[in-house]
Hints:
The chain is an all-beta fold. The protein has strands at residues 2-5, 22-30, 36-44, 47-56, 65-68, 79-84, 97-101, 107-116, 122-130. The strands form two sheets. Strands 1-9-8-2-5 form a five-stranded mixed sheet, with no helix packed on it. It has a four-stranded antiparallel sheet with strand order 4-3-6-7, with no helix packed on it.
Amino acid sequence: MICSLGLAGCIDLSRSEEQTSRINKIEFHNYTPNEQSVLVIVEDDGEQVYDGFTAVPPAVDGSPTVEKVEDLPVESGVYDIYFNLARRPEDIEGEFWARADDTDAECREYRLNIELDDNGEPLFGVYQSSC
C-alpha cells in the first residue's frame, strides 16, 4: 500500500480489523537540501508506547540520506504510528501529520520519503510493506 501526504493535506488509513503485528523497521529517506526533523509517535491499542524525534540530514549530491528510527517496541501489538515533520508539532490533528495504522500483516516496515512539493515545502510519501 502506498500513501502520500503533503503538508497541505491529511490522511486517515482505516483499520479493517484489529490484529497484532510487529514493527520491524521505520526509516526516513530525505531528498531535500535541508535537514528534516521528524516526530514519531507509536500507540499500541490506543496507548502511547513510543515517541521521539529523528533528525535526517540533507540529501548529498542528489542522493537521499537515510535514517532509521531506533528503540521501537519489539513486541507485537495493535499499532498506530504518527509522523510529523516537526514544523508544527503542536498541530496534533491537522495538516502536518501522517498516520500509518495497523494492518492484517504480522510484521510491518515503513519507509517515508521526504521530498519537496511544487512550492518548495517538504512532504511525505509513506510506503509500508510486510517483512
